[in-house]
Design a protein that fits this description.
4-stranded antiparallel β-sheet, 7-stranded mixed β-sheet, mainly beta
Length: 123
């Protein structure tokens, strides 16, 4: 059974940093493109970042470029999202997801999803 488990969320002040983790099991981690999405209250889920199977390519939403860094450790079957200079409007549930496609930013392209981790940024 495939499981994606996010961790690392919490409460942080504006301008602060958090590092999210996504631990994967039940799938061949190196075979999947991995992505991060987020959903704020009352909003649709939106793309944040994606990383290729071989860790060579990354792609970010414009709103997070230069502040967020996505990475993965194949040996640990884990993906990360380092978030710096956080803003109150980035308060959301953050989800990790796995796709068999190459570098998708669309939600429908992802097969497996975690349950999410709450990130709250106070002003």
């Amino acid at each position: 059974q495939v499981q994606l488990v996010e961790s690392g969320g919490g409460l942080v002040q504006a301008g602060g940093s958090l590092r999210l983790s996504c631990a994967a099991s039940g799938l061949t981690f190196k075979s999947y493109t991995m992505g991060w999405f987020r959903q704020a209250p009352g909003n649709e889920r939106e793309f944040v970042a994606v990383i290729s199977r071989d860790n060579g390519n990354t792609y970010y939403a414009d709103s997070v470029k230069g502040r967020f860094t996505i990475s993965r450790d194949t040996a640990k079957n884990t993906m990360y999202l380092q978030m710096n200079s956080l803003r109150p409007e980035e308060t959301a549930v953050y989800y990790c997801a796995a796709s068999y496609l190459s570098m998708p930013s669309q939600e429908y392209a992802y097969t497996y999803w975690g349950q999410g981790t709450q990130v709250t940024v106070s002003s």
